[in-house]
Write a structure and sequence with these properties.
alpha/beta; Spore Coat Polysaccharide Biosynthesis Protein SpsA, Chain A; 13 strands; 30% helix; binds 1-O-phosphono-alpha-D-glucopyranose
Length: 290
């Protein structure tokens, strides 16, 4: 049997970003910059590095700026061209997706991550697909997270989620894996629970916002069953695939920055700035003065 290649990715970007108000009153949180690239660019670059061809953004009202970001910016481009500022023009090259490579669907109600993913069902059709939560900046430029997962998918088929160990006291914030047998970085998934109550988590392996899923999960989401927080949870729908399809967790080898959180977002800016030859010196000097 040949394994169907993962060609499409869903980026759920409809959220209000309330944790970053007032900054997110008129700027989508996915466009907040880490150093000089918006968060969404990191997720799209990760998808491109894994061979994804079609990017599906599940947006909402007041998120037009994301659509504009991946388009051409005629005025600024022609201005830079006429002034021969080619190095600045080059910084824009990664923001232009190919014609037809980006699609936008609206999530009309904030009914949960499972609902957001389901909103893309007609564009996904009958193919495996990836989901990337752009809040989670998973950083390993040499071996991006989704690429690590695609390699596992090609070996194991079925469904693959990225996981990392979190402290016991944080397990209630995540989808948590009930683990089976492990082979290196790959662990069999025996169960999944969304935001387990304190003291009830089956492990410390938390799902960190990257998924490779089979299209059958979309049929399960159709039932609109609600779970933790009264929301339609992707984790609950995935749990129903376990035992019917292969399901593995890939422990991500790299740095994770939770940019849905202010401290995580600021840490991401510092960590990535320190990796840049043009910024590391002044940032280190400044930190030393604090
Ligand atoms: C979502 C998922 C959760 C996952 C987390 C990773 O939760 O529902 O399973 O562990 O993302 O960031 P959220 O943070 O949207 O509440």
């Amino acid at each position: 049997m040949t394994i169907k290649r993962v060609r499409k990715a869903i980026f759920p970007v409809a959220g209000f970003g309330t944790r970053f108000l007032p900054a997110t009153k008129s700027v989508p949180k996915e466009l907040l910059p880490v150093v000089d690239r918006p968060l969404i660019q990191y997720a799209v670059d990760e998808a491109l590095a894994a061979g994804i061809e079609e990017m599906i953004f599940v947006t909402g009202r007041s998120k037009h700026a994301i659509e504009d970001y991946f388009d051409r910016a005629f005025e600024v481009e022609s201005d830079l061209q006429s002034k021969a500022k080619y190095d600045l023009l080059e910084t824009l090259s990664g923001t232009r997706l190919q014609p037809g490579q980006a699609a936008f669907v609206r999530q009309q109600e904030m009914a949960g991550l499972g609902h957001a993913v389901w909103c893309a069902r007609y564009l996904i059709g009958d193919e495996p697909f990836a989901v990337l939560l752009p809040d989670e900046l998973l950083w390993n430029p040499a071996s991006p997270c989704l690429k690590q997962m695609c390699d596992t998918y090609e070996a194991k088929d079925g469904n693959v989620v990225a996981v990392m160990e979190v402290p016991e006291q944080h397990t209630h914030r995540y989808g948590i894996v009930s683990p089976g047998v492990s082979e290196g970085a790959v662990t069999e998934v025996k169960g999944l629970v969304e935001k387990p109550r304190a003291g009830t988590a089956p492990s410390r392996l938390a799902v960190v916002g990257r998924y490779i899923l089979q299209p059958e999960v979309l049929k399960i989401l159709e039932a609109r069953e609600t779970g933790a927080g009264g929301e339609i949870q992707l984790t609950d729908a995935m749990a129903k695939l376990i035992g019917k399809q292969p399901f593995h967790a890939q422990t991500f080898d790299g740095a994770r920055h939770d940019c849905g959180d202010k401290a995580g977002f600021i840490q991401a800016n510092i960590a990535l700035a320190l990796e840049r030859a043009d910024l590391a010196g002044p940032i280190r000097e400044f930190i030393a003065t604090l």
